[in-house]
Amino acid sequence: MANRTMIRAGATIAILASGSRGDVQPYIALGKGLKDAGYHVSILTSEDFAELVSKAGLDFRSSGISVEALLQTDEWRKTIEGGNFLAIMARMNQEMKSRADQLARQLPSLLQGVDLIVAGMSGMGGGFSAAEKLNIPFIQAYVMPLTPTSSYPSPLTPTLPAALGGLLNRPSFHLMRQMLWQTVRVGEISTRRELGMKRPSMWGPYRHLRQQRTPILYGYSQHVVPRPDDWDEMNQVTGYWFLDAPQDYTPLAELVSFLEAGTPPIYIGFGSMANRSPEDTARLAIRALQLSGQRGVLASGWGGMSSAELPDSVYMLPAAPHSWLFPRMAAVVHHGGAGTTAAGLRAGVPSIIVPFFGDQAFWGQRTAALGVGTAPISRRKLTAERLAAAIRQSVADTEMRGRAAALGEKIRAEDGVARAVSLVQQSTATLV
């Protein structure tokens, strides 16, 4: 990487992050770790997370896109509920097209004075090209496996038949990367046009990044997804990037009273996964809790889950930090987003994953394979009876509970943020 300067102490690092809170929060945690190490850190992300970024002591820079507002539209609710990943990717591509030109015009000024860019897939939507044009070092950072390997199938195809001896595993990653690239490529086209660069390759920058030996950091635990033997040293698994609740966090008094009034409840929440009938989802969850004989905490989240009438055994929660809440649960039911899955595993309680789309089924499969959760239940096949059966299993299976507790201890012993910060420092020392 000729003509690039070494990252100095006190340098400015820009982190590009997009998606729901579960997608963005790990990058804020990474940014906080870098700030504590002496860097000035800015986060370029959705308006939804301005307060979260600022509370972490980081500089917020707006991408101008409200993910929460998008997910609450009827069009997005219908698309997500349909569960067709290709349809979801097509709609994401449409959203990118509608905003690509505006973001491309803003990106150079947003990156003014930046010494290093750290980004996941959002960086492929203009960030990588801006880094190349402005001669800024670039580090990739992801919360799911993206580098091809023969060890397991891609997160978008977690159920490939093992009978084929893993022959499809590596090709499945190439297919996944192309699907993701085609979604964000419009952002690269707009950025490169704005910067006077030639159009990006149809096949993405992956080969170029590999040839340039661009580091890749993976923010998940090796105890959950082991680092494959066929990855080179540029691909590093650091451990999860957790952003814990502030030390002065005070839970709602009525929540504390509910928790103290009986046995640990079951958490049920689907985060930002929109639903056209949130009341029906709430009724399904309540019915499952009644069938299983368990108390429950229902998290409304962005999905808008609500219910006017609740039994005394169920508490409706607007929001609470997972790091505080999950260890107080008997089990957690969620959609399987990378961030929520990480929080559930660290808490050391069994997980019941109801995947909607994307990599959620992958995390559901990993949780089940590790024996720390039940078999995932597809959102399209979710019934009160199936959920109740999974809840009963998660409460009664002492071996599962033991494995979940042991895995939680291992994850809590890791410091993924510190490891990632150390790798950033080592990597930037070679970017000269």
Can you name the CATH architecture of the largest domain?
3-Layer(aba) Sandwich
Helix proportion: 40-55%
Beta-strand content estimate: 5-15%
- Estimate the mean pLDDT confidence: 86
How many angstroms separate the termini? 6 Å
Helix-strand topology string? EHEHEHHHEHEHHEEHEHEEHEHEHHHH
Q: Report the CATH superfamily of the largest domain.
A: Glycogen Phosphorylase B
Tally of separate helices: 16
- The domain count comes to 2
Which term fits the overall shape? globular
* CATH topology category name of the largest domain: Rossmann fold
Query: What is the C-alpha radius of gyration, as a whole number of Å?
Result: 21 Å
Give an overview in words.
This protein has 432 residues and is of the alpha/beta class. It has two domains: 244 residues, Rossmann fold (3-Layer(aba) Sandwich); 161 residues, Glycogen Phosphorylase B (Rossmann fold). 44% of the residues lie in helices and 11% in strands. A seven-stranded parallel sheet has the order 3-2-1-4-5-6-7, with helices on both faces. Helix 1 packs across helix 16. The protein is globular, with a radius of gyration of 21 Å. The N and C termini lie close together (6 Å). 50% of the residues are buried.
